[in-house]
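Pasting as-is:
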Amino acid sequence: MTNTESRPALPVIDVAPLVAGAPGRDAVAAQIGTACRAHGFFYVTGHGVDAALVQRLEALSHRFFDLPEATKMQWRMALGGRAWRGYFPLGGELTSGRPDWKEGLYLGTELPATHPLVQAKTPVHGPNLFPDAPGLEDFRATILAYMAAVTGLGHRLMEGIALSLGLPAGYFAERYTADPLILFRLFNYPSQPVPEGLDVQWGVGEHTDYGLLTILHQDAVGGLAVHTPAGWIDAPPIAGSFVCNIGDMLDRMTGGLYKSTPHRVKRNTSGRDRLSFPLFFDPNFEARVQRIEGLEGAAARDDSAERWDRANVHAFNGRYGDYLLAKVSKVFPQLRDEVL
């Protein structure tokens, strides 16, 4: 995949000074701010996440997705209950009412059944359904190590976003993300024909993300496209990088100064399966999302007529968890009926 010559590519930002808390982090923050104002997407390098860990997770994920569907369904999402964890098969997730051509494993912060939030039956909180099959003995440990490493990066990137807005570095941590809601996905986009009669156009249809920040690892196959003000552009894989984008709640907090940007994934026709691992770094479930006071240049304009879902994110008031549940329920309507 290549970008169209006349269209801008997404910026690549070396965040090493930000990760290290070193001199130069303000300059990194300024680059992040420019990217967020322009189109809400940017690559990060110098992030400090171990490349060998990423490679191990890729290898184990291929091993898992290569299993027969009947085997994978032993860890299906219906068994995850209110935690909304587990496997879903091809066509099992909807975007704008249409099935996506991918399969996946839903994961999140690992909480034991005895945790107060689990005891209180808080949705999207609980234990994961870790596949356990021959050759997957290290899957659980690798997933948890990866989530911990990328969550740590999320904290540093949110400090950079705060600094880019002229706020104290700890602004988001103090209000929303001291204990962030972490949702993590392993997605596999198979390179195989769609069965006849199934209304599939995309690997994933056009959408925005719900929360604050998404940190995505994509393998070498590629397929991500971003709807910038200049039109749709590709976001091809860059080895050793993550692709980051901001979500609806950061759009709401900044009054639209930092926009949540629509994106989609092309149907994979490469001849080999494609992996992508998005980690969603979001406000705490109970956090009440508010506008940032005194932020200049933030009009909080109702742009629902232009949005993919016709929603006005600036009109939302209440717990972040309520916003999340309303969105996720549309992605898995059958699971919503069974679980909630």
